[in-house]
Amino acid sequence: MRAAALLLLLGALRAARATSAVPPGAPAAYAVDATTLLNAAERRDREVSHKVLATLRVLPAWAAGRELLLRLELAAPRLHARGKHANAEYRPVESLWDSLPLGVFYAHFERGLVRAAYLDPAEPLDVQNFKRSLLSVLQFQEVEGLVNETDVSGECEVQYETFSEDSFRKIKRGCVCAGWGAADEVRSRRAVRYSLAEGELRELYADELHELGEAAAGAGLKARAFLRLTREQHAPAAPARAASLAAALAALPAALRASPLAAQPPDHLADDEDQVAAPTDEELSAAARDAAGGAPGLGGSLRAARAALLLLAARARLPALLHDGADAEQLAGALAALGLAGGAADHRAAVAFLRLRQRDAPRALAHAYFAALAQAERPHDAAAEDALRLADELADDELRESALLAGAAAAARASPAAAAAAHRLLARSLAACAHDECRRVCLAALGNLRRAEAAELLLRHAAGGGAAAGAALDALDALLTARGALPAACLAPLERAALGAGALEARAAALDLLLRAAAPAPFGLPRVLLALRGAPAELRRLAWQRLRALAAEGEPVRLLLRLLPAELRGWDAQAPGGTSSLLVRELARGAGWRAALESRQVASGALLRRGRVRLLVLSPANRTDDTVTVELWTRGLGALAGGAAEGDAGGEAEEAGAGLALGVGGARLRELPLFRGQAELLGHVWTGTGSEPTPVLRALRPLAGARAALPLLGGAALRYRRAALLAAALDADATVSLWARTARARLALRVALAARAEASARAAWGALAAHAAAELEPRVRVDADLDFYDGVALCVRAHTAAHDHARNVTLTSRLGAPGRRVRRSRATRLPLAGRTLALGAPNDATCRAMGARGD
Questions:
Q1: What's the rounded Cα separation, in Å, for the pair 114 and 116?
Q2: What is the Cα Rg of the chain in Å?
Q3: Quick one: signal sequence residues (predicted)?
């Protein structure tokens, strides 16, 4: 074929294809079929869609060498739509297209690329973008391999592939179109295939597929657009050609203007309003109360998660809910939503209402706000920085701790500059601390920041003693969980801390960190295990249980256990006595996601020293999310259990005490003391404090929201947004009988996940919309029975309740001048069975011997 012939239609082809009987610059006519569809990600039918059918005439206005000016006429465009039946045929629908005159536009091609498009700016922008789509599929370069091009999709990396002399295609990747904004969670595939016959372009087929969100999570959607040009048998008459390019351009219609080929964003792209009706003031107040969920048995529900999503969607109206006449539940819910929003204006409104810089700040509401700010998905730098400043100004130690932890967690999700500034501030504050409690709080805040450069500082404090050492190890644990690895230089200091002479719980935490961090390359672990033979049995017990858990997850540790020296392979080496335990039990699995419950209990003399239970979620990308953490520490309880009061490391007896530490999404919350001293403990026992279910944790956490906007082939603008939120609640109760020398504790963890996704493909001739929702409401209950009448016996039972994974996708279309509507909806509900988790044969035997209640 002649290169000039293809310049007319799709750009020049390589010389290897140059055999054709078509005269240069011959006019042609093509039938146009431009189709746009929206659907659920996993479905192949029952979509909503529309077509624009037309005729495109391609006429040469001027040509010279490898340059070409084409006159293009878009004739008889008609909108077509399907009826309510999914298999109905497409029928013409009255629309904007019917009122448009013959669509004449021009394009200047050079070496197969469109150098300028000449469009009428008075036409609707979507019509202009439709014409840009037609020009984009007609441009083609004489290259093989990767090149960069700009077309209706923006700047793209284009791969050219040749199948035969009559068939070739181009594949577009990484397209970025200026002015259209973000493209979060969008996976796009774009390709154009060309078919030739006897040197003529007979057909081209351009196809775009955009996958929106996570299909496996139930809220995934997809948009598809394709454009087909099929050559008609009869060609239009050839017009007279201009003598030069300048003459041809001078003769263009006066209304046409040179325009870029990239799609231009429509005005409605900036609209930020939801497609559902805005809630009334009464509905917003009720949603704030539901989101708070403060009473026992409430919170951690789908009702709370839905309410929080509603509040975040109406964040601009939240300050109006903060007034002295509002009840505590409304205030708590509104402040939590402002904290989750994390904007500079949101933070100013909350701080002004709470009067945080005054002495009469409402402490409970302030703690609720800071706990929510720590979960903000994209906090503004100003909010994080001001929270850290507040921590320096507040006189109340508990409020100072909440502010510092929240500011650090927010800075970790803000800009890199804000995170670096927070790290410098916390390092200075830590250096200025005069007592252990101050150091504990600063180290916990560094853990919330989760920056790798803090590892060396944390290790220095982990080598010390007291509460600061435990906080430093917890911070390193948070760093390992968030990043999946610790700097290699951490392994040797952790080994020294694990094998040293510190407190049992600190050594256990260091040992656990060492085993997990070294698991990908566990070459030095046999040396550690050999050194542990002289360590307390509780440490050896924890080490082997962690290694077995790691071996179930990774081949390096499995291989290590098979290659251990003989002295480490025996039953006496791998099954030491003691009551400490480490268990990992899978709660659920599906679509590449996993949920697991991890329990690490460090005991001394059969009495708990430090216990931690974590709900972990592992993504398909093998990233671990520390969803909820509950940690309990005790001291000096040996005398109450009928034994000697144990010391921290074999030294003086300790004062009785206990505390609770909570974390959500890897962000640690302020520590809650339970009692200090034996007298306070006995007072709680005699009065029955905590014998009824008591709220311990109420948390709301946004999850990976996404927004996207991009042009579709065929002129429509695609918008996508997704919001997801997790609501968690923990209630606990405990009873102690000093007469029977028994105790019973119950933990009820409720978690709810609500995800919403919206997509729309809007154009001047109609709109397609899709709404997807996915909801999940699991429950976990842990019962513990303790008998310390003659020795100590502990029975623990863990259960998950049956629940459903509910999904719904609703598709709608409103097309043409009459606003013709179609609605399709599909709901599914996947039942998930409840389970009793196996916690090991010794625990089961203890439960049978005690006859512990399972209700």
A1: 6
A2: 33
A3: 1-18
Residue 402 carries which DSSP code? H
pLDDT tens, position by position, 209-234: 999 886 545 568 999 999 999 999 88
Please check whether residue 299 is in contact with residue 695, taking contact to mean a CB–CB distance below 8 angstroms: yes
Is the separation of the CB atoms in 220 and 213 below 8 Å? yes
The model's confidence at residue 638, banded by pLDDT at 50, 70 and 90, is low
CA 278 to chain centre: 26
Residue 333 · residue 350 · CB < 8 Å:
no
Closest CA to 468 of 487, 490, 443: 443
Residue appearing with tokens 């300790």: 654
User: Two tokens at 481?
Assistant: 């969980």
pTM: 0.86
Relative to beta strand 167-176, strand 186-197 is antiparallel
Residue 796: name the closest of 841, 851, 839, 747 by CA: 839
Q: CA-CA distance, 235 to 57, in Å (whole number)?
A: 8
- Between the CA of residue 679 and those of 656, 675, 686, 735, what are the distances in Å? 9, 9, 11, 17
With 70 as the cut, is the pLDDT of residue 509 above it? yes
Q: What is the DSSP string of 61-105?
A: EEEETTEEEEEEEEEEEEEEE--SSTTPPPEEE--GGGG---EEE
> Mind listing the pLDDT tens digit for each residue in 763-772?
999 999 999 9
Which three-class secondary structure string do you get for 183-251? ECCEEEEEEEEEEEECCEEEEEEEEEEEEECCCCCCCCEEEEEEEEEEECCCCCCCCCCCCCHHHHHHC
The answer to whether residues 770 and 746 touch, using CB atoms and an 8 Å cutoff, is: no
Quick one: which of 747, 744, 748 has its CA closest to 850?
744
Q: What is the pLDDT of residues 453-481, one digit of tens each?
A: 999 999 999 988 888 999 999 999 999 99
Q: Identify the burial level of 187 via C-beta atoms within 10 angstroms of its C-beta, where 0-12 means exposed, 13-18 middle and 19 or more buried.
A: exposed
How many other CB atoms are found less than 10 A from the CB of residue 20?
Answer: 18
Q: What 8-state DSSP symbol labels residue 22?
A: S
Q: Which residues of 230-268 are buried (b: 16+ CB within 10 A; e: fewer)?
A: ebeeeeeeeeebbeebeebbeebeeebeebebbbbbbee
- Residue 736 CA to residue 741 CA, distance in Å, equals 8
Residue 97 has pLDDT above 90, yes or no: yes
Which parts of 231-327 fold into alpha helices (H)? 245-250, 281-292, 302-313
Per-residue model confidence (pLDDT) at position 13: 34
Phi-psi sector, 66: left (phi>0), alpha (psi -120 to 50), beta: alpha
pLDDT > 80? residue 274: no
